[in-house]
Write a structure and sequence with these properties.
The chain contains twelve helices and 15 strands. The protein is of the alpha/beta class. The two termini are 29 Å apart. Helix 8 links the parallel strand 9 and strand 10.
Length: 387
């Protein structure tokens, strides 16, 4: 079936029109707004990150925010440890394409500066002296300016009294701290806040958020703090977020990595896509390689991924290296190849439509991908070749 005009007539067995499986229903939470982004309720789970620039360096900070925005970041946090940083918040907030949240530690006066600047606020009660005393004033200012907040409880800065009570930063200690602060804000008539309870240990994180979810209907920001370099941090975040999101817990996430913050966004988006919580884009299905492989599957998969880079529609492409699982996986994909003996069988919609030499596999898949996407209703004809 080598006639190019007939290549696209598969049987539809793997159409992306199938409804994806879903996890447990989201646990109901109240909805707040961070700028124009809804968090909680039935809003999509948002991805956050944080700039690594000096906030007072407005141009550098805005450049990094632009890179994060292009990567898919929904909400960005900036540090605010000095007067110069506080003075820059208004300009950054006005010029950012996504909502900006000021990260406040130690000095309550920066909370008020951030509110006046029009950005959201994240506060860490554990390292702000006499924070509870100023909550009524902060609540009044935030309410008057339509500002939402996040109460960010961290294991590394937990209130000394709770450490003495529990002996260490246990899930129960983190949750007790969060609930205490939440009640003080609510007693002051303020409800537009989310909560996070972060720890470096994924198991502690999971249990803490489970307990916190049972304690109230606050929107929850998921995070594993001090997660580590890219590989370790990605694994720890995926483990914790996967467990919690599978229970319907979590309204917004940040993957904390010792790496470029753009990588945080990429990992966060991929976690959500892997759980069918965000629309999928290009998905490469490829085998890990083994002694049965008759092709350099690592190189082949990487070349295909590079050739299809920039595709935003949910096309599933299978790149397989042997006859054991290759034909089956290729049939399940929108477009696929089962390789061996110096050639590849090209599958579309579950049927073999072409056989090509190994040297032509990459070119063939790259050329067919936009056509298959249109034929299978994944993208409009006018958008198929735009990347």
């Amino acid at each position: 079936m080598d006639n190019e005009q007939n290549l696209l007539h598969g049987d539809g067995a793997a159409s992306a029109q199938q409804q994806p499986l879903v996890l447990a229903p989201r646990r109901p939470t109240r909805q707040i707004y961070v700028g124009g982004v809804a968090v909680g309720g039935d809003a999509p789970i948002s991805v956050q990150s944080m700039t690594t620039t000096k906030t007072w360096d407005v141009d550098a900070t805005l450049q990094q925010i632009a890179a994060l925005t292009a990567a898919g970041c929904d909400i960005v946090r900036v540090a605010c440890p000095t007067d110069k940083d506080a003075a820059a918040l208004a300009t950054i907030t006005q010029r950012s394409a996504i909502p900006v949240v000021a990260d406040i530690h130690f000095q309550p006066r920066y909370v008020f500066a951030a509110i006046e600047a029009g950005c959201g606020v994240r506060v860490n009660p554990g390292n702000i002296k006499k924070f509870d005393d100023v909550i009524p004033e902060i609540a009044a200012a935030a309410h008057a300016n339509g500002t939402s907040m996040r109460i960010g409880i961290n294991a590394g800065s937990l209130d000394r009294r709770l450490l003495e009570k529990y002996g260490r930063a246990t899930p129960e200690a983190l949750v007790e701290s969060a609930v205490n602060e939440a009640r003080l804000f609510e007693d002051a008539g303020f409800y537009d806040f989310a909560i996070s309870v972060k720890h470096h240990d994924p198991v502690t994180v999971v249990r803490a958020y489970e307990l916190l979810s049972e304690a109230g209907d606050w929107p929850l920001h998921l995070g594993v703090t001090e997660a580590g370099p890219a590989f370790q941090g990605s694994i720890k975040s995926a483990v914790a977020f996967g467990a919690l999101l599978a229970e319907g817990i979590g309204d917004t996430i940040r993957v904390s990595l010792s790496d470029d913050p753009v990588e945080e966004v990429r990992v966060g988006e991929q976690i959500l896509r892997s759980l069918n919580l965000r629309p999928k884009t290009l998905e490469i299905v490829s085998c890990p390689g083994c002694g049965r492989a008759q092709v350099d599957i690592w190189a082949l998969a990487n070349e295909v991924e590079k050739g299809l880079k920039g595709i935003t529609y949910p096309l599933r492409v299978a790149v397989m290296g042997c006859i054991v699982n290759g034909p089956g996986e290729a049939r399940e994909a929108d477009l696929g190849v089962a390789s061996g003996n110096g050639k590849g069988q090209i599958f579309i919609g579950g049927k073999v439509v072409k056989r090509v030499p190994e040297s032509e596999i990459v070119r063939t898949l790259v050329e067919l991908a936009p056509q298959v996407a249109v034929q299978r209703g994944l993208v409009a004809q006018t958008d198929a070749h735009s990347r």
